[in-house]
Amino acid sequence: MSPSRRPDIPDSVFEQVVEQADLAVSITDLDANILYVNPAFTRITGYEASAAVGANESMLSHKVTPPAVYQSLWGKLTARESWAGRLVNRRADGGKYLADVVITPVLDAQGKAVRYLGLHRDVTELHRLECEVRNQKALIESVVDAAPVVMALLDGEDSVVLDNHEYKKLMGDLGMVEPATAILDAVRADMGHGLGTAKEGSHAFLNREVRIDTRRGRARWFSCSGIWVRRDGSDADSFFGQQNSVFLLLTAMEITEQRAQQEKARMAALRAMLAEESRIDSLRETLAAAVFQLEGPVNMMTSVLGTMERRGNGLPAGAALSEALNAARSALDSLRAVIPANSDEMPTAVNLNEALHDVLDLATPRMLAGGMHVEWQPQAVLPAIHGYPNRLRAMLKALVDNAIEAMNTKGWRERQLRVTSSANAEAVEVVIEDSGPGIPASARLKAFEPFFTTRKNGGHLGTGLSSAQQVAQDHGGGIELETANGGGCRVRVVLPLRRA
Ligand code: FAD
Hints:
There is one protein chain. By secondary structure, the chain is α+β, with helices and mostly antiparallel strands. The chain has helices at residues 11-20, 39-45, 49-52, 67-78, 124-146, 165-173, 179-191, 238-241, 256-311, 315-338, 352-369, 389-407, 464-474, and strands at residues 24-28, 34-37, 83-90, 96-107, 113-122, 150-154, 160-163, 203-213, 219-232, 244-254, 348-350, 373-377, 385-387, 416-423, 427-434, 478-483, 489-496. The protein has a five-stranded antiparallel β-sheet, sandwiched between helices. Flavin-adenine dinucleotide is lined by residues 26, 28, 30-32, 57-58, 60-61, 70-71, 74, 78, 87, 89, 99, 101, 103, 116, 118, 120.
């Protein structure tokens, strides 16, 4: 009796256990001739015990199983080791099934093999399900891989557990930086908060447009969505406990081309709008200039007439002067009435970095033609000011145009434009510095007066700085002129973040 068996357990119990087991059990001699089979063997193979006993196990052999498998099986058995594997078996009725087989040599007291014990079960259905899962996985993977969008499945720590071909391509483009990290950082910055509570089937974010700068300096745009998906735990301890976790399925569709088109259309519209604004501005300035220039003589006439009236002399001349004065005043009123009003745009949050970017973009062809080099140093995140976007953009355009014109002087070699933006708790500052001839200190205050100009080429009224100053003042700020280090002109625009 085996020492691992309690003395009150008789041999018959073992016989019952083997007989009633739901596993095909067979015992053979060393040539695989069958000595015993249990009822489950009959149920699975279709061979009655009477037909099986005395026959060889090879009656189960279906010639689909490669000979090498049997060779490895017998190799193990002759070395007195167990063999486990899968064989395609043939039933008594000729039908086939996939058997999960374990064959173990039964050793005597001297360790010599005397019998073989075979255990097997039909795993055809299990195999079918396994194949189906594998096929479905392969299908899903090939669909996901072929999809023209970047896809990645992320766990709770934002680690990628599954990705596709496009994702890997983007990773190469980013110099092996994880695209999911770059996208999620951009989405979080755009949303201004986290991704919210993970809820299966709901969107963490939808169609967020994010910009990613590749290592070659090319900006790529993606429309990104994230959806929470549940994954059941596959650990043994999750079998009863239903442990599952929520993953984030990230998809990103490239929209760089569409963005470029939109940007092109926006810049064309902006160019047209700025041209129209500048036309109206010139008209406004010309009329204001005419009023300004007429006011001098009218004031003089008023004071002469007053003196004449006080002295009580020169009545006919006084009457004529009074008539002329009335006509001049009426002409002035007519002129004032036709000065176009400022456009009635609504004040809103304005990011001066964006406005400067637009202005520099528009000026690029002229700067290239003039062989100018631009150094654009924006503060990475510039707070928005509250103001009139079109007027502010027109103000910046006037200042950049002035700088370009100053450097475009014939024969002038230094052609470097430096534009920076920065902010502190109170204000945003924009500095536009050119390497042109500069404005002499004596002329700096006069430069803000309408019609003052240092240019001798004519055709320019010299009102740009005065209207730029007006826009800055309307926003509670101001513009100062300084001499740049190289002698050019440095224009400093300071606009407060909050206005009284
Ligand atoms: P076989 O002529 O039987 O032999 C195939 C190869 O095995 C040959 O290369 C031969 O060299 C080697 N070989 C065969 N017999 C021996 C031996 N006695 N000693 C050393 N090498 C040997 N097969 C199944 O297909 N399905 C089963 O469910 C199954 N259950 C088995 C259970 C037990 C307990 C044992 C011992 C064997 C079992 N076999 C089973 C293996 C079976 O005996 C055959 O080897 C196999 O079916 C191949 O049969 P065959 O007629 O194609 O080739």
